[in-house]
Amino acid sequence: MNDSMQDKLAIIENVQNWAVWRDAGDWERFKTVWHEEGWMSATWFQGPALAFIEVSQKGFDNGVSILHFLGGSSVDLAGNRAIAQTKMTINQRASVDHVEVDVVCTGRFYDFFEKRRVGNEDLWKIVRRQPIYEKDRMDVVDPSATLQLDVDLLGQFPEGYRHLAYLQSKVGFKIKRDMPGLKGEVVKALYARGAKWLAGEAAWDAPPVRSGI
Length: 213
Prior knowledge:
This protein is 31% helix and 39% strand.
């Protein structure tokens, strides 16, 4: 196995560990997938990975149900830097207007990776994670239940995560409304930042911390 393949496998393992450890509430191991300045962006949170872990743990302990399922990965390598894209779904269950629903959002994790010396090892870890939201839907858990959505509220959110944002706003989250989708200028800008990262440039200025809880 050549070095390139070993690097790609290490990156993909890290991506898989992110989903398994985060959803299982294995917070100590979850910390290890990030570099120390790691940054997480989501519909409801944008900020340092350690802050994301803290608020995720609080939500987990309070019964917030957000789970992830992963598909295939594609990794672009450039020396000690990489961009990994991984197909995924975000699954959230909650009560909307007293009706229990499931929202499934399909998209990709777009991850900025770097290999650095950590202790006695050279390790690939996440520097920045930005989900891309492609499409979603909402289903009632009880087939006999009915739910009437607020069309005006639903229409305020981008198509790729419209129902996820609707649910999250109903349970008290503040939602970022310009996250990248399948098409458009926002996702093009993300791809451009990824290209800069692979070229060895700084891909962003650190934005302010924002939690939607």
